[in-house]
Automatic annotation (TrEMBL):
<dbReference type="InterPro" id="IPR050577">
    <property type="entry name" value="MAPR/NEUFC/NENF-like"/>
</dbReference>
<feature type="compositionally biased region" description="Acidic residues">
    <location>
        <begin position="69"/>
        <end position="78"/>
    </location>
</feature>
<dbReference type="GO" id="GO:0016020">
    <property type="term" value="C:membrane"/>
</dbReference>
<dbReference type="GO" id="GO:0005783">
    <property type="term" value="C:endoplasmic reticulum"/>
</dbReference>
<feature type="region of interest" description="Disordered">
    <location>
        <begin position="65"/>
        <end position="86"/>
    </location>
</feature>
<dbReference type="InterPro" id="IPR036400">
    <property type="entry name" value="Cyt_B5-like_heme/steroid_sf"/>
</dbReference>
<protein>
    <recommendedName>
        <fullName>Progesterone receptor membrane component 2</fullName>
    </recommendedName>
</protein>
Amino acid sequence: LPTGPYGIFAGRDASRGLATFCLDKDALRDEYDDLSDLNAVQMESVREWEMQFKEKYDYVGRLLKPGEEPSEYTDEEDTKDHNKQD
């Protein structure tokens, strides 16, 4: 929710902000971010945040890479597809 404790992240890719501990709007992306310029420590931080969020929140979707086509899945298929990407 935009009003919740992580509201600044709502509708954005928060990976960079979480990895760098920066909550400036410049660190939050409205489109896909490949994170290719993050170092190993920052990428490990992204993975740790992801694990924490997976335990607490339902998976509802992901940002698409440029040119990637959206797909529609049933709840069961969506969960299987998401788990394959991890």
